[in-house]
Known about the structure:
Order of helices and strands: EHEEEHEEHEEEHHEEEEHHE
Helix content: 25-40%
Radius of gyration: 19 Å
Low-confidence stretches: 1-7
Oligomer: single chain
Amino acid sequence: MNLHKDTQEQPLWAVLVSSFDDNCDLWPIFFHFLFKHWPDVPTPVYLVTNYRTYDDPRVVSLCVGKDVSWGETMTRALAKIPSKHVWMLLEDFFLTQPIQTARIDRIVRAWDAMGGKYLETGRQSDVGEIVPGTDFRHIPAENPQAGINSAFYECAFLGALAQPGWSLWQGNSQLKKLNMASHPDLYYLREGVTPMIQFVEAVKGKFWKPVAMDFLKETAVPPDLKWRPFPPQGQDVISKYTRSFHKRRMEWRKKRDERRFASGLVPSVVCPLGR
Length: 275
């Protein structure tokens, strides 16, 4: 049963994976853990891309074209999603624990009934006014937790944060301002309640984080270290130079691929692990 489907015209919620082509090495790993820990995830799962597509019938690749700005990309993607709300995840959030679809659906329906615009799913707190008879708390100005991260959004609300031309940081800054102004429709779950999602955040500054490398080793999932290196972490001259060299190389690759696609080459297809 598809729990998130309300009408043929507009499902209540859908999963949206925010990404872009240069992070395509993360897609097979992300979806490996997503489908492992959430086998009955409401489908399709929407993946934001530029030109590349992911070869899985459960995933719809939203090819939005050239990377102009985060706001422009998100605006184009949201226009293709027929749901009232989206649970936006980032492509480097590798799930570590099962997600219970029925529970998520109950939470989202209760949040929607309150007129919620934003529901933080990665952090919890006991600071903020509690909604009587529920596990929800308003996110207060004295404990600002709202950020463009793992969260549920009303699509119209996310669209207002993703103004064409805005960067991710501008959208995040606007959300923080609303939080600091005690916007009434921003929520999270109180502490003591089972988290909605648990994951390893795998990437920082283009490179693999040490915690991600440990996690992938433990789960026997090999990363593509040629596409995304794991350079030295130190602050010595050699470590800094190595990271700088890899960043320049990765930026050159991104620009090269953009030129190839602009020249009319067929977009490449990214396959799941093991294929």
